[in-house]
Write a structure and sequence with these properties.
Number of helices: 3
Shape: rod-shaped
Structural class: alpha+beta
Number of strands: 8
Largest sheet: 6 strands, mixed
Distance between the termini: 40 Å
Radius of gyration: 25 Å
Length: about 190
């Protein structure tokens, strides 16, 4: 077990679906950022009826659903045929009265189209939520960068106004503080 303190966490439970007359439900959780390694592949944690699936990850339908999801659309890097590369942990849980395992050893969930489809839909939903979070972060960083750039020139604007309008030093300083206040209000 790794300890990590993610910046963003989102969980989703899909409505129940039916496979061969047996209902099943998919739950997906996603944790992003924090102390998770950013240069490695995302961690995938698979569960079936609250039991962790620790072996045969590549043979599991959950892995296939994660690999075939369009992570690039959600601001994450992904090589073809691989998990996304990001500080990300993905948890997938399948709850059902009959989980279709690949073998009697119950190490992986079998590849059935309806099951993979439900998993992909849940993954795409949490991916959209994550992309909203990441885009908001990028906007805030860009706005702060622009604000710092403009703040750098407020003293020069004050000096130029003082020369053009023949203002006294106290009025110039007041004008600079008013410009800083306007900048602060306009960037919120």
């Amino acid at each position: 077990r790794r300890n990590f303190d993610p910046d963003y966490v989102y969980c989703l439970t899909r409505p129940p679906a039916v496979y061969r007359g047996n209902p099943f439900q998919i739950e997906v959780g996603l944790a992003f950022g924090g102390s998770l390694p950013g240069d490695e592949l995302a961690g995938l944690y698979r569960f079936a009826n609250r039991v962790p699936l620790q072996y045969e990850q590549s043979a599991c339908a959950m892995t296939k659903a994660v690999i075939t999801s369009p992570w690039k659309n959600y601001e994450l890097n992904q090589s073809r045929g691989a998990l996304p590369s990001a500080p990300l942990a993905i948890m997938i849980h399948m709850a059902s009265v009959w989980v279709p395992f690949t073998s009697e050893s119950k190490k992986a969930v079998a590849h059935y189209d309806i099951i993979i489809k439900e998993m992909r839909l849940a993954l795409m939903t949490v991916g959209r939520k994550l992309s909203l979070h990441l885009r908001k972060q990028k906007r805030e960083i860009e706005a702060e960068r622009k604000r710092a750039y403009i703040e750098k020139y407020i003293p020069q604007i004050g000096v130029a106004l003082q020369e053009l309008l023949e203002l006294s030093d106290p009025i110039r300083k007041k004008t600079e503080s008013q410009l800083s206040g306007i900048l602060g209000r306009s960037r919120k």
